């Protein structure tokens, strides 16, 4: 039934997204990219996808330029979609931008805490997370002011309101603030997808529930692994785990008690899908060591899994999840291109195959 | 060397000869000491040069790896973490101790790096994702900075040693080619002057002796003459008194016989 009226509002956007998806780089494109000897060649190879953005780049350019230009394209496409979206899809897409907003706000909080000129920071903000109220945050000169402005001006207010007090911004490490917000964001997004009248019971709810659940689990595992050897206490750590996903609640409880990577492995073994992750990815030695060749880090395995989920989303019709999937795929593509560009620029050809290509 | 002209302005006396000899001895001792110092320094210098070469090569490799690990971080975190890392750092984790090393009397500063493990200001960076890469990148850059510190201490030592070796070599050359020849010349000069004085003295003494002898001889001759005269008179007396016929031809001026 849900397919019947879907196209009235969101059919155009879905069509566009599927078009974008088809213009993503494929494995053969990537293998052409890896053959490049110089960044100049790389630029030439990227012309079909990013020609418009890269055309005016002067010849000796750093790898960051490529990433910046590719992001520009992503933002441009996203804004177009957002302008076309109505109703629940518009809200859905707003939710997508919140995660970038969290990063931007965290950046500005850092700047305010250290009494830097926050105006310079606006340039560093991710354009997707840019909203009207963001420049207003720069006005704040102290933490209380900033906190109230965040509550009033930003769409992030619900995440702040329930989890953080103004004093927390000062006392807590900014990473903890960021992860608290992100946890709250994930939960809110999940709730939106499963309970919104337009979305509940549709394929969108089902798919997004899977994807967000995976995202939540990934964050929980990463937070656990990365907090070993830091001052983050176990109880504080537990507060950062999103209360959703396949690991919740038994897995997260075990994660919260974990002291070493081995305990993490035990915790996630209760979920069949994740069991193989630790075997594939060398844990604790992220990146597989220098010059470690083909071994993948856990991070890579997660990215791979995320991309597979995103790819799977496109097999469904009449769903908003494709927008999310496209955004993630496009982001991964930018990361891949940056990685390949870095490998070429730094002459590290043996690791160049470390990108993740799904199509 | 330009011989006689190149000497110190001293009076050629025995005392200054003594002084000069002491000076020459001092210069020779100094020369051999400085020469040895220069050799020790040069040895050290070569070693440092070799180690600089090694360190520079190592630095090349390490920096490459470090830059690449930063690329890994960018890939894993999917964004810029530079600002966040900069802002969350409060105290230095990587510190340097400076100490002095003594090489043949030259003070070389040596930098020693150490890591304060408890300082982990951005340990939570990338907590959500990429944290391990961030920590790894930090360690790799720590190693890179370590290499840089090593290189810096070697380079400082290199510059200082270079200066010192130049000064020492200049001193060695100066002693060898200027001071020693000049002192030797001075000694030679003093010796020759003293010899000349000796000779003069000797000659003078000889002359005096001669003169004295001459005077003595003259005095003798005078006396002898006087004596002779006296004797002649006496002889005459004797002759007059003797029977022997007088040579009548011999003495024209014989006294007129007064009859």
TrEMBL record, chain A:
Superkingdom of this protein's organism: Eukaryota
GO cellular component annotations of the record: proton-transporting V-type ATPase, V0 domain
SUPFAM superfamilies with a match to the protein in the record: V-type ATP synthase subunit C
GO molecular function, one term: proton-transporting ATPase activity, rotational mechanism
InterPro entries tied to this protein: ATPase_csu/dsu_sf, ATPase_V0-cplx_csu/dsu, ATPase_V0-cplx_dsu, V-type_ATPase_csu/dsu, V-type_ATPase_csu/dsu_dom_3
Keywords in alphabetical order: Hydrogen ion transport, Ion transport, Transport
Pfam families reported in the protein's UniProt record: vATP-synt_AC39
PANTHER family: VACUOLAR ATP SYNTHASE SUBUNIT AC39
Function: Subunit of the V0 complex of vacuolar(H+)-ATPase (V-ATPase), a multisubunit enzyme composed of a peripheral complex (V1) that hydrolyzes ATP and a membrane integral complex (V0) that translocates protons. V-ATPase is responsible for acidifying and maintaining the pH of intracellular compartments. This subunit is a non-integral membrane component of the membrane pore domain and is required for proper assembly of the V0 sector. Might be involved in the regulated assembly of V1 subunits onto the membrane sector or alternatively may prevent the passage of protons through V0 pores.
Family: Belongs to the V-ATPase V0D/AC39 subunit family.
Quaternary organization: V-ATPase is a heteromultimeric enzyme composed of a peripheral catalytic V1 complex (components A to H) attached to an integral membrane V0 proton pore complex (components: a, c, c', c'', d, e, f and VOA1).
Name the UniProt record assigns to this protein: V-type proton ATPase subunit
Species per Swiss-Prot/TrEMBL record: Arthrobotrys conoides
Gene this protein is translated from: VMA6
TrEMBL record, chain B:
Ranges where the record places region Disordered: 219-245
Protein name, entry field: V-type proton ATPase subunit D
A single BP term in Gene Ontology: vacuolar acidification
UniProt subcellular location: Vacuole membrane
Family membership noted in the UniProt record: Belongs to the V-ATPase D subunit family.
One Pfam match: ATP-synt_D
Alphabetized UniProt keyword annotations: Hydrogen ion transport, Ion transport, Membrane, Transport, Vacuole
Entry-linked InterPro entries: V_ATPase_D
């Amino acid at each position: 039934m849900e397919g019947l009226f879907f196209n009235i509002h969101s059919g155009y956007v879905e069509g566009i997204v599927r078009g974008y998806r088809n213009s993503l780089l494929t494995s053969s494109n990537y293998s052409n990219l890896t053959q490049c000897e110089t960044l100049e060649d790389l630029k030439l190879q990227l012309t079909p996808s990013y020609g418009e953005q890269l055309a005016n780049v002067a010849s000796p350019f750093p790898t960051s330029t490529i990433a910046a230009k590719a992001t520009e394209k992503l933002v441009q496409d996203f804004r177009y979609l957002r302008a076309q979206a109505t109703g629940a899809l518009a809200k859905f897409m707003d939710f997508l931008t919140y995660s970038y907003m969290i990063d931007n706000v965290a950046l500005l909080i850092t700047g305010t805490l250290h009494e830097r000129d926050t105006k310079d920071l606006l340039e560093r903000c991710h354009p997707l997370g840019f909203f009207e109220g963001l420049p207003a945050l720069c006005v704040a000169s102290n933490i209380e002011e900033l906190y109230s402005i965040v509550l009033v001006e930003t769409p992030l207010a619900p995440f702040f309101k329930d989890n953080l007090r103004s004093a927390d911004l000062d006392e807590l490490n900014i990473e903890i603030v960021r992860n608290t917000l992100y946890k709250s964001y994930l939960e809110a997004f999940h709730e939106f997808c499963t309970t919104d009248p337009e979305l509940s019971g549709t394929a969108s709810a089902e798919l997004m529930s899977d994807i967000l659940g995976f995202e939540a689990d990934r964050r929980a595992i990463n937070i656990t692994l990365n907090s070993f050897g830091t001052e983050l206490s176990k109880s504080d750590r537990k507060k950062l785990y999103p209360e959703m996903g396949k690991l919740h609640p038994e897995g997260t409880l075990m994660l919260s008690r974990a002291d070493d990577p081995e305990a993490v492995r035990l915790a996630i073994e209760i979920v069949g899908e994740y069991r193989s992750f630790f075997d594939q990815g060398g844990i604790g030695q992220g990146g597989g060591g220098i010059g470690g060749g083909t071994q993948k880090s856990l991070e890579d395995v997660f990215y791979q899994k995320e991309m597979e989920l995103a790819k799977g989303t496109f097999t469904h019709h009449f769903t908003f999840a494709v927008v999310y999937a496209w955004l993630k795929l496009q982001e991964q593509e930018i990361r891949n291109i940056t990685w390949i560009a870095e490998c070429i620029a730094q002459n590290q050809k043996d690791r160049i195959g470390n990108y993740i290509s799904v199509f | 060397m330009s011989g006689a002209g190149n000497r110190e302005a001293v009076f050629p006396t025995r005392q200054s000869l003594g002084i000069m000899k002491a000076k020459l001895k001092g210069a020779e001792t100094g020369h051999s000491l400085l020469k040895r110092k220069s050799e020790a320094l040069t040895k050290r210098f070569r070693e440092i040069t070799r180690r600089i070469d090694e360190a520079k090569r190592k630095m090349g490799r390490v920096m490459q790896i470090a830059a690449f690990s930063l690329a890994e971080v960018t890939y894993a975190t999917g964004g810029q973490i530079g600002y966040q890392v900069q802002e969350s750092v409060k105290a230095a984790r990587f510190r340097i101790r400076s100490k002095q090393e003594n090489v043949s009397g030259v003070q070389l500063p040596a930098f020693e790096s150490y890591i304060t493990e408890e300082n982990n200001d951005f340990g939570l960076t990338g907590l959500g994702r990429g944290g391990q890469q961030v920590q790894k990148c930090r360690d790799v850059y720590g190693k890179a900075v370590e290499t840089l510190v090593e290189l810096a201490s070697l380079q400082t030592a290199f510059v200082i040693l270079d200066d010192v070796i130049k000064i020492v070599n200049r001193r060695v050359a100066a002693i060898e080619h200027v001071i020693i020849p000049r002192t030797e010349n001075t000694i030679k000069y003093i010796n020759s002057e003293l010899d000349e004085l000796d000779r003069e003295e000797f000659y003078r003494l000889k002359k005096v002796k001669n003169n004295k002898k001459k005077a003595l001889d003259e005095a003798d001759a005078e006396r002898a003459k006087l004596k002779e005269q006296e004797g002649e008179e006496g002889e005459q007396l004797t002759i007059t008194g003797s029977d022997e016929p007088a040579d009548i031809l011999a003495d024209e001026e014989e006294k007129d016989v007064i009859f």
